Every structure is written in structure tokens, then in C-alpha cells.
Amino acid sequence: MEVTKVLDAKGLACPMPIVKTRKAINELDSGQILEIHVTDKGAKNDLSAWAKSGGHELIKQEEEAEVLKFWIKKG
């Protein structure tokens, strides 16, 4: 998996991780991958729902030392 861009949204509360993710993904071409790092636990549901509603694909998500990581492929 080749990541095109990494977004550091650690320490931000809802809705800022989604706002920053939307801005970052708009800078990518279709098929490119955005890696997002967040600490807001609510982002787990928010980002997966946002990706689906926007026609993007949530490829993977994992938690590592209180940081949630998501990989979203732009639709």
C-alpha cells in the first residue's frame, strides 16, 4: 500500500479530524491513499461513515498507543 499523504490530526476534537480529512483528500487524485492519525475516539465511527458517504474506501484502521490510524483510498 503506497500512501500519498499523511494527515496528523492528533489532539483535535470532533469535527476537526473530519474537516481536515476532507481538505486533505480533496488534494489527492482518485485512487491515491490518505493516512490519518487521530486521538479522538469518536473518529472511529465518524471517519468510516464519512468515507463511505463520500464514495471513498476505508482500506484499513488500527490503534497504536492511543493513536487511531486510518487509511482511506480516494474514490
TrEMBL record:
UniProt cross-references to Gene3D superfamilies, sorted A to Z: TusA-like domain
Keywords: Transferase
Highest taxon listed in the record's lineage: Bacteria
Alphabetized GO MF terms: transferase activity
Pfam family, one: TusA
InterPro entries: TusA-like (IPR001455), TusA-like_sf (IPR036868)
Residue stretches making up the UPF0033 domain: 7-31
Protein family: Belongs to the sulfur carrier protein TusA family.
Name this polypeptide is given: TusA-related sulfurtransferase
